[in-house]
């Protein structure tokens, strides 16, 4: 084809290079390029006199500073992003003509922004919330955005209710509290009175809402899209991202403590792992449905409060994404990136999902206020890597200089160019779905069941996951002041599961539900994150030791664990060098003052000869906290003495062995398991 363009994994990076500026080592200038001679003192009438109006340098510097902020995103304000590449495993030609899904030899550059939804830009990252997972593919046919979340369903069915759910879940307007939390009256009042939110609320109360890492979350396109192939045949499709490391979460107590200890916990985790070369990987999966099967299910496939059970419609894994480069400048790249589910390429089309239809309006609209005008596509991070030509002109912050007289279509002066392209030439042709109906503002009858899949989700949870869900409801409703709202929620969730509603009611002091129960007994094992992958790779291990430790032994253990990808960090009495009895030394990364148990996945107690009461006490607290968060703990020789109680020493996931080879093997496996939920914690 004559419009074939060569895009490879470096194309975006090469494009960005033209915009990068290195200031280090240069002379200071004004924005006009003039060198300035002094930057510490404003121009004054006399040493102690007033600043002069003519001080252009002062005015320019201050004005720019005064205008540095732009509005944060109305939702998903707090986010962090990275670059990478995507490659399809096999041609998807049968289903879609999208070029980036045809050739396993092609690597498409991507930019992914992860986010929380509710909190403002400076909020903590480990709050209970949905996570955004938005991917920009810079394809040869233009930009394709897959704007996904880490939960497969949504709060509402129709885009027109988006402002309502967002107003309800954001801080309450009279006092702007609470920050980044659904644990307040207006969210739960919304749920009780908009019962389509039942299913999503179950997900929000589950472990999925407190991920261990952006690298350990699934992603879901949520809405139903269409694939269209070269012959014009269409399929319904749902998109999935599956993390290589499996799906793993924090525990609630830990998540809350991390919010104070390290509010940047998730971005730090992503940033550090990419810097160290531990590149996060996600596989792209699709659930594909023939158009003829549209009405074969008990739910409506266009209803965004429903998922497609993977056991009924399997997820076909079609490609892999690797994130391998951090941004240079968070504002320029992460903050200015503009996603939109309507940024599609030929071969990907929409459905009548009313939530998706609403989204198709909202995203461009929001960028106009956020990025200050209609030329946001020209901001380097948003630019497609293929050229773009049209008759759109002018507007704030226009960068391109479109030459020539003609900025209209059709024209004889420019021979009708830029000219629309036929489908054969790569032009986007909308799928010709037949639609007919009367204009109505109504909910389809097929969208009325709000509880069956919420029950399916509950049924699919393992015992510890169910306990976490009950605890989350108790916490959140415990913060709700209105007794009436609490009661409405208990009554409502009795439709999902009676035991769940009773467990909530008992704790929050409402009456048990008047009626309830469900006959849904089906479950979907794919929904339990305990059924995903386990790996010790990149798990953070706290190694607690002081001078006088057994150097050879510790070195042997750490090398052994590192071989399975574990990342040890040393905690000692002071920063600096820690010395073993045999001359082996380590550099201490932390003291108990600069770090905390909650930011590690596992603890290795080594000890040493220190007699410091303070240190020993803090070590005891550190390990007990890890224990109470169900984390693996390992100790050899002297370190065993630090384990507070016999009970702790005998618990699952606590590996005590003086046989080093066995210790490495068993502790490595325990680190991969991540949490030992059937441990008794008092
Ligand atoms: Fe949305 C941002 C994902 C429904 C309106 N959305 C936004 C982001 C993600 C999602 C990941 C952040 C993108 C970034 O990192 O910049 N949104 C979803 C998913 C939804 C969803 C998976 C359910 C299918 N969103 C949704 C609806 C509407 C919006 C129904 C409005 C009708 N979303 C927006 C927005 C945002 C946004 C207001 C805020 C900032 C932005 O777009 O760029 O337009």
TrEMBL record:
Its EC number is 1.11.1.6. Heme binds at residues 73, 113, 162, 359, 363, 370. Gene3D superfamilies: 1.20.1370.20, 3.40.50.880, Catalase core domain. Its cofactor is heme. There is a cross-link at residues 340-363 (3'-histidyl-3-tyrosine (His-Tyr)). Residues 1-24 are annotated as: Disordered. It is an enzyme of class 1 (oxidoreductase). GO terms for cellular component: cytosol. Pfam families: Catalase, Catalase-rel, Catalase_C. The keyword Disulfide bond does not apply. Signal peptide: none annotated. It comes from the Bacteria. InterPro entries: Catalase, Catalase_AS, Catalase_clade2, Catalase_clade2_helical, Catalase_core, Catalase_haem_BS, Catalase_immune_responsive, Catalase_large_C. The keyword Magnesium does not apply. GO terms for molecular function: catalase activity; heme binding; metal ion binding. Residues 29-417 form the Catalase core domain. Keywords: Heme, Hydrogen peroxide, Iron, Metal-binding, Oxidoreductase, Peroxidase. Decomposes hydrogen peroxide into water and oxygen; serves to protect cells from the toxic effects of hydrogen peroxide. Belongs to the catalase family. HPII subfamily. This is Catalase.
């Amino acid at each position: 084809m004559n419009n074939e363009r060569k895009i490879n994994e470096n194309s975006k990076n090469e494009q960005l290079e033209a915009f990068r500026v290195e200031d280090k080592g240069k002379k200071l200038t004004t924005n006009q390029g003039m060198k300035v001679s002094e930057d510490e003192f404003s121009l004054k009438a006399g040493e102690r006199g007033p600043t002069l109006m003519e001080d252009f340098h002062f005015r320019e510097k201050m004005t720019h500073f005064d205008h540095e902020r732009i509005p944060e995103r109305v939702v998903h304000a707090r986010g962090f992003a990275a670059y990478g590449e995507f490659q399809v495993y096999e041609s998807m030609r049968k289903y879609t003509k999208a070029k980036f899904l045809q050739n396993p030899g092609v690597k498409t550059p991507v930019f992914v922004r992860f986010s929380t939804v509710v909190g403002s830009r400076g909020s903590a990252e480990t709050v209970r919330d949905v996570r955004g997972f938005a991917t920009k593919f810079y394809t040869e046919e233009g930009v394709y955005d897959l704007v996904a979340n880490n939960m497969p369903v949504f709060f509402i069915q129709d885009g027109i209710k988006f402002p309502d759910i967002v107003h309800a879940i954001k801080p309450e307007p009279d006092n702007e509290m609470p920050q980044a939390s659904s644990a307040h009256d207006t969210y739960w009042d919304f749920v009780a009175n908009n019962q389509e939110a039942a299913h999503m609320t179950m997900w929000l109360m589950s472990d999925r809402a407190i991920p261990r890492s952006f690298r350990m979350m699934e992603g879901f396109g949520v809405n139903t899209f269409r694939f269209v192939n070269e012959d014009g045949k269409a399929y319904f499709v749902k998109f999935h991202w599956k993390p290589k490391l499996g799906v793993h979460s924090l525990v609630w107590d830990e998540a809350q403590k991390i919010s104070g200890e390290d509010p940047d916990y998730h971005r730090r985790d992503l940033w550090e792992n990419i810097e160290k070369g531990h590149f996060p990987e996600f596989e792209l999966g699709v659930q594909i449905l023939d158009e003829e099967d549209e009405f074969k299910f008990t739910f409506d496939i266009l209803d965004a409060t429903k998922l497609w059970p993977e056991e009924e419609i399997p997820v076909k894994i079609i490609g892999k994404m690797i994130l391998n480069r951090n941004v240079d400048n968070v504002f320029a790249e992460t903050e200015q990136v503009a996603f939109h589910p309507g940024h599609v390429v030929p071969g990907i089309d929409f459905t009548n999902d009313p939530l998706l239809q609403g989204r198709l309006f909202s995203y461009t609209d929001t960028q106009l206020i956020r990025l200050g005008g209609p030329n946001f596509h020209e901001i380097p991070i948003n630019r497609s890597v293929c050229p773009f030509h049209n008759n759109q002109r002018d507007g704030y912050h226009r960068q391109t200089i479109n030459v020539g007289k003609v900025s209209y279509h059709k024209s004889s002066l420019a021979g009708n160019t830029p000219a629309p392209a036929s489908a054969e030439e790569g032009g986007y042709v909308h799928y010709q779905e037949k639609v007919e109906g009367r204009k109505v503002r109504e909910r389809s009858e097929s969208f009325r069941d709000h509880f069956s899949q919420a029950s399916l989700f509950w049924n699919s949870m393992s015992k510890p996951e169910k306990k976490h869900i009950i605890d989350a409801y108790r916490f959140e409703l415990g913060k709700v002041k209105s007794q009436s709202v609490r009661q409405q929620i208990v009554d409502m969730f009795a439709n999902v599961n009676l035991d769940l509603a009773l467990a909530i009611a008992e704790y929050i002091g409402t009456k048990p539900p008047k009626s309830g129960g469900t006959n849904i007994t089906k479950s979907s094992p794919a929904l339990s994150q305990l059924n995903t992958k386990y790996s010790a790779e990149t798990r953070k291990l706290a190694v607690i030791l002081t001078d006088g430790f057994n150097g050879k032994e510790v070195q042997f253990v750490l090398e052994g664990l590192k071989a399975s990808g574990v990342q040890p960090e040393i905690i000692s009495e002071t920063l600096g060098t820690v010395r073993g009895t045999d001359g082996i030394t380590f550099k201490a990364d932390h003291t108990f003052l600069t770090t905390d148990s909650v930011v590690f996945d596992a603890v290795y107690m080594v000890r040493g000869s220190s007699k410091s009461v303070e240190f020993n006490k803090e070590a005891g607290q550190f390990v007990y906290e890890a224990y109470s968060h169900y984390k693996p703990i390992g100790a050899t020789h002297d370190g065993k003495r630090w384990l507070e109680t016999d009970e702790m020493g005998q618990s699952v996931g606590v590996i005590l062995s003086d046989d080093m080879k066995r210790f490495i093997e068993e502790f490595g496996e325990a680190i991969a398991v991540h949490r030992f939920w059937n441990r008794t914690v008092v």
